[in-house]
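Q: How would the structure tokens look for this protein?
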Amino acid sequence: MTRLLVPALLVLAACGASPSSSGEDGGIDGVAPVEPGVHEIDLGAVVSDTPYTFVVPEHALGFQLVVEVDNSNGTEQVGISTLRSPSGAIVIDNFFPVSCRTASATRFGIAAASVPQSGTTLTGPVEAGTWLVDFSIPSGAPTHARAFVRTTADGQFHGGALDVRVYIPDGLAVAEPTPHTITAATAAADPGIAMRLDSFFATVDQLYGFDRGVVEFVPLPATMIDIKTNDQWNQVVAMTSSPGPDPVVHLILLNELTRFDTTVWGSSAGGPGTATKAGHKISGVGVDISFTFGPAADGQTLAHEVGHFLGLYHTTELDRSFHDPLGDTPECTAAMAVCPDRNNIMYVTFYGETGGVGLTSSAQQRRVVQASPLYRATP
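A: Here is the predicted structure in token form.
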């Protein structure tokens, strides 16, 4: 039996206000060296149709842009409309990452874009120098933008750990070792939850080179056990919270998950989501643990949804109309059972625990994930 794994809903943004100001960081020549780590660049208040600049230092693995409406009510459509590299290459055009068929750089209230995400920026470290960006902002809505740039000493990945916050609705049903219910207070000692997290961490270690980080459990109200509507999904994702300055992965465990009138196994709130800010519509991933495939498969499904959250697409969509924008992932044009990408972690469906045997990721998929500011660098 197959189950759908769904990324976020992505819609095209409307045009914003007329330009009225310029970026604060424009006109900077040269690139100053920085210490390895994640560096925040505040672009300040931004408006529509105005070029803003920010400087990416040498040895950058990648960066994420985040644009957010101040005190958003969640209905204002905002987006990153255009992004150009220092050499003039177009990386985002009309909210679409180049070579992608989904306008992933626009959402409601807050939007994000990651570099690299498509073939334009996958070779070596991200191009250093002055990048140029335009936004689409709702008229009259105060809005701010930031860039989060990950650098290393040589522009190569040297390991990292994923810290996670696991959200547990009160009374969540768990099948292993016998059917029972749990709360956030009992989750840390629960064998069924431990098996899922062990599988998740083993998968992200195998595929992306991330170590197991700190795990925290956070309570959710019992009303969040079953998510039946998109409004409920937005509500539960907005309940995520950050415990401190380091980014964490927000994992929401549920007993039912419905997205766009379809029961699904897992869903990501963003493609990419925001790795550096919680408590809004694109700040977490969820998995329905009530299916019969078992905890190992649930952990691998969490890894699939985190892949979306970090900017990865399905390698092949169900209708074969779209393949991801990465050149080293196989494309399927045949029956699903013989697809060459069937064992890739980002394939569109998952065949239970047997589908986890021989799970793979490509070099370019790893490049996208390892460039994110989401994880904590380790020595």
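The first helix runs from residue 184 to 187.

The chain is about 15% helix and 30% strand.

Upvote if useful.
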